[in-house]
Amino acid sequence: MKRDPAPETGVRAPQPEHAAATEHALDARLLLPAPRHLAAIASVLAALALVVLNTAITNTALPTIAQSLQVPPALSIWIITTNQAALLTTLLPCAALGESLGYRKVFRWGIAIFLAGTLMCAVAPTLSWLIAARLLQGLGGAAIMALAIALLRQVVPSHQLGAAIGWNALVVALSSAAGPALGAAILVVVAWPWLFAVLLPFGLWVMLAAGALPVVDGTARKADLLSMALDAGTFASLVIAAGVITEHPVLAAALLTISAIQLALLVKRERQKEAPLIPLDLLSSNSFRISVIASVLSFAGLTAGLVALPFYLQHGLGQGVLETGLYMIPWPLTVALFAPLASRLANRCSTAWLCSVGGVCLATGLTGAALWPLRENLIILVPLTMLCGVGFSLFNVANNRNMFLAAPKSRSGAAGGMQGTARLLGQTAGAVIMTLLFNLLPADSAPQFALCAGASLNLLAALISTLQGMPRASVSN
Hints:
By secondary structure, the protein is mainly α. It folds into three domains: 193 residues, MFS general substrate transporter like domains (Growth Hormone, Chain: A), CATH 1.20.1250; 52 residues; 200 residues, MFS general substrate transporter like domains (Growth Hormone, Chain: A, Up-down Bundle). 77% of the residues lie in helices and 0% in strands. It has 19 helices and no strands. α16 runs antiparallel to α17. The protein is globular and about 60 Å long. The N and C termini lie close together (8 Å). Pfam families: MFS_1. Keywords: Membrane, Transmembrane, Transmembrane helix, Transport.
């Protein structure tokens, strides 16, 4: 039986003793009957859509929710921050639990917890209640996001992994694009609790459809609760520090120090383990490590650009809310439309080359949006944002494919957890960059500087991706 290739550095990531038996079982699952095979794939993609739609809808409705609950905007931000913190602190533990207990079991529990949190959101009478519900949603969403591609890897052949990652990018992009419009349409007709209530029937269907996923036994490794607590403390301190860095820099510095200490203790504790919570075994692979670093940089630049562009359109270019929304649509729509082609290219071309080209395209689009005299001809922004969409689609599909192919199939959960962690770390860093620029620069020029910062980060991601220096990966099951 063929195995996954060793990491490009020549260092083979350790596997559990029963890895061979597990891989045999995974290969057998590729023989699922066609209807069940399609239902399994659909359940994973639909669960991702559920989480992304929820995030996009909530972000759009935040001012309305704050006004309804009669809380100041600064406090309402915790509706978003709490969910993000829950996601970031539990991604790696959820990945570890998936490997230990079985991906399907933890994935379905994640859906159930997410739905419980969604129901709590729909009936929340106070801000405190809503924040607690969003925390629960984050816990469930972490299991879904950490294990999605690991589950897809169980039901598609390896030569279709690039396509599966493309489907993932397509669903995320379409959900991100549809979320604001769907949220606005709901708020025109009914009150904000219906933003969450309308997701419940969809979520119940996802739960039922997930029954089609293959049952593959986990490793039965005992969960290390102390390591999970250190992991949660590391990322919780980091997210809170990011939220208070501009108003309370001393507190932020203290929290960052606490985060660093906990991370050091966690790495020391996990270093000798066969399957560490923080996947040090996978990070020993040059290809995997470069993909993670490039992902953090790219998502930081992407977030800075996506946050800055609406401010630039409204405050710098005098556009209204509706016009701003229309000018923002081409970006995620292009990501969605280009994802299938990006997945085919990822199966045929060097992932390092595709990541580099994608990063350069995204950097070029952001630079153009920042420096082009858009007041004279605003329509030029459309092809520039479409170039950003093409670039991100190329980078994201190729980089994620490379990340997963650098990991043995038995460690797909850990790879998924690390992928999600890299993305959220990048998004957090991008938001911090945007906040700092708004505090340091005049409001009318800060968005353009943020766009340039986003371009620089993506150019750096493109350059780092060239260090992979490898041909297209080819893996058998």
